[in-house]
Every structure is written in C-alpha cells, then in structure tokens.
C-alpha cells in the first residue's frame, strides 16, 4: 500500500467511463451517471490509495493548438467541447449549456460538487490534460519524495513511469501500474515506450504509423526496446533499420518501411512525447497559480445541497465519498 501519495486524476478519462455506462437518472429522467460514477470512483481512489492531496485535471477534450500546428489532423476524429471553458469557471454558478448536451450539464454539476471537497481542480484553456499532468509529475512535483499516482487508462502516461516514483492507477483494471508492469506485458521499457508507439501510431488520436507495424513487431525486430538502461531515439531507429537493410537485402519489409516513413515517426514522437514543450509559459503560470491559491475545504452542507438541487439521489456511496475526502484535511 502506498500512503501519503499525490493523486493526479485524468478527469475527463474517468468521467467518460461512467458517462457512457452509468444509467442513473434524476426524477425527471435526466441522465446523471457521469456525476454519480465519478464521485463514487473518487471516494474509492481516496479510500484505497490514501493520498495526501488530490489534483483533478480538466480539458476541453480536443487538441492543443501547438500540436495542431505540428499536424492539422491531430485528434480530428474527436469533437471539441468549446463550451467547457465556461464549465470550469468554479464560480459556483450553473451555466446554461450552449449546445444543450447532457454531457455539459453533468460536467457543470460535477465541477460544482467537487468545489465543496478538498481537491484541487485545474483547468487551463487550450491545453491538454496530458501536458498538465506531465508538467506536475515531471516538473512541479519533481523533487517531492511522495509517490505520484496518475489515475487514467491512457497509455500515453506509460512513458512517465521511467521515474520510479510514479505509478498509474488504471480505473478499468483497478490496478497500480509501474515500469515493471509495462516491461512484463509489452516487452518494452517505459523509457522507450513513446518511440515504440511513434512507430505504431495511435488511432484514438488520428495518428497513422508505419504500415503493418504493431508493438509485437517492434519488440521482435528490435530487442533493445526492452532495455531499461538506455534511451532509444529517432536517430537510433533510423540508423538501426538502415544498418539491417544494408547487411541483408532480403530483410523483412518492415525495415525499409521504417526508413521510408521516418517523417511520420518523427511527427508522432513530437505529438506523443510528454513534457512542457506544448505548454506556454503563461499556461504554466496559470497551473502554478491555481495550486498556489488552492485552499482545501470540506463543506458537507453545500455538497449535499448541490446533489439535491440537481435532483440527484444522495446514496450511501456518495455520502461515504465525503467522509473519505475529509481525510485529505489531516
């Protein structure tokens, strides 16, 4: 068990898991499963992982402008909720959904409920959740000896497990993932996971990869991907593939495909690698400021009122979440 950790939640990832499957409704028939599921899950995370502090990171759901500049079709297969920038104002007021979608309705309620708990919500316009989380884990809390636990099912975060003080809690599998898990299950070290995925691509982000190459092909053709003591980079993969081609003209087609698709591999690397490069200094300052001014509160009366005002049944599980959250005030 890891105690006194820092919990960083990929909030839209967690919300959508419950929004898509939880059928809880109000007495008027309005779906609120995303709200109820998220709050119950939050209580479970706090109870199980025993964090000292919780950071809930939001985004609009679309690509950052910096990544869009690199590749205009990046995340073109996803809808961007422009109206979400109003949802996260945290001013305690309900905002009418500009497009009337139930998703926005639920997010409005959820962010207000979370405002009555001792958790720090962070939203910066035109940024992606991944970049803020990477900044917190790799930079902001870099010298903090506490274990940083990221709650998400997104494999983009596997690269951050290179830091032995970072874990990922997968909300679907309900397990803590470390660098050993990645190596055991994929045959690829966490520090080289981004390069492997740059070769393969990511359909969820509308990124094609080298034709015919999957993660199994990567590790079978390039065993060095499983080494935890070396960093493989773009030059290495290009030179290694070219070397094999020069030594054996009848080598598998994947090697010539890698050489001829280096532009795609380089593009994917720039889009997938997580650091501060996709955050402007003003955006970093906003994240820092949000953390600096955060004062944890635990207001049970307003917490309950928000549920009642939204006509959401206040079940035992939801009430229990409040008790778990109080532990963050210690």
**Cα shape:** elongated
CATH class call of the largest domain: Alpha Beta
How many domains would you count in the coordinates? 2
Per CATH, the architecture of the largest domain is 3-Layer(aba) Sandwich
> In DSSP terms, counting alpha (H) and pi (I) runs of 4 or more, how many helices?
15
Strand content: 5-15%
Structural class label = alpha/beta
CATH H-tier superfamily of the largest domain: 5'-nuclease
Q: What is the residue-mean pLDDT, rounded to a whole number?
A: 91
Question: Which segments are poorly predicted (pLDDT under 50) over 5 or more consecutive residues?
Answer: 89-100
Walkthrough of the structure:
- This protein has helices at residues 11-19, 33-49, 65-70, 84-87, 102-114, 129-140, 179-186, 193-200, 215-221, 234-247, 253-260, 262-272, 281-293, 300-309, 316-326, and strands spanning 5-10, 51-57, 120-122, 148-151, 166-170, 175-177.
- The protein has 330 residues and is α/β, with parallel strands linked by helices.
- It has 2 domains: 5-185 and 275-329, 3-Layer(aba) Sandwich (Rossmann fold); 187-272, 5' to 3' exonuclease, C-terminal subdomain (DNA polymerase, domain 1, Orthogonal Bundle), CATH 1.10.150.20.
- Strands 3-2-1-4-5-6 form a 6-stranded mixed beta sheet, with helices on both faces.
- A hairpin with a 4-residue loop joins strand 5 and strand 6.
- The two termini are 19 Å apart.
Question: What's this entry about, in short?
Answer:
With about 325 residues, this protein is α/β, with parallel strands linked by helices. The chain has helices at about 10-20, 35-50, 65-70, 85, 100-115, 130-140, 180-185, 195-200, 215-220, 235-245, 255-260, 260-270, 280-295, 300-310, 315-325; strands at about 5-10, 50-55, 120, 150, 165-170, 175. The chain has two domains: about 5-185 and about 275-330, Rossmann fold (3-Layer(aba) Sandwich); about 185-270, 5' to 3' exonuclease, C-terminal subdomain (DNA polymerase, domain 1, Orthogonal Bundle).
């Amino acid at each position: 068990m890891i105690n006194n950790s820092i919990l960083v939640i990929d909030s839209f990832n967690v919300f959508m898991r419950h929004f898509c499957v939880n059928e809880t409704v109000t007495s008027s028939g309005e779906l609120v499963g995303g709200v109820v599921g998220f709050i119950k899950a939050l209580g479970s995370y706090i109870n199980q992982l025993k964090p000292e502090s919780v950071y809930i990171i939001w985004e609009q759901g679309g690509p950052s402008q910096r990544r869009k500049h690199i590749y205009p079709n990046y995340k073109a297969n996803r809808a961007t909720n422009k109206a979400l920038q109003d949802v996260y104002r945290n001013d305690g007021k309900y905002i009418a959904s500009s497009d009337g979608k139930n998703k926005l309705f639920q997010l409005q309620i959820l962010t207000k409920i979370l405002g009555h708990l001792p958790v720090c919500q962070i939203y910066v316009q035109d940024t992606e959740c991944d970049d803020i989380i990477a900044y917190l884990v790799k930079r902001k809390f870099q010298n903090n000896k506490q274990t940083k636990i990221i709650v998400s099912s997104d494999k983009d975060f596997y690269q951050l497990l290179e830091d032995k003080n970072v874990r990922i809690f997968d909300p679907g599998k309900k397990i803590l993932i470390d660098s050993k898990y990645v190596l055991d299950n994929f045959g690829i070290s966490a520090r080289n996971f981004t390069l492997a995925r740059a070769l393969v691509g990511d359909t969820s982000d509308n990124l094609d990869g080298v034709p015919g190459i999957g993660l199994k092909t990567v590790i079978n053709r390039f065993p060095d991907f499983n080494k935890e003591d070396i960093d493989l980079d773009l030059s290495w993969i290009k030179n290694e593939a070219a070397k094999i081609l020069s030594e054996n003209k009848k080598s598998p087609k994947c090697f010539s495909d890698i050489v001829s698709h280096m532009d795609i591999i380089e593009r994917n690397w720039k889009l997938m690698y997580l650091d501060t490069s996709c955050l402007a200094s003003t955006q970093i300052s906003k994240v820092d400021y949000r953390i600096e001014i955060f004062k944890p509160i635990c207001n049970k009366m307003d917490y309950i009122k928000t549920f009642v005002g939204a006509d959401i049944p206040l079940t035992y599980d939801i009430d229990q979440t409040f008790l778990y959250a109080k532990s963050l005030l210690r």
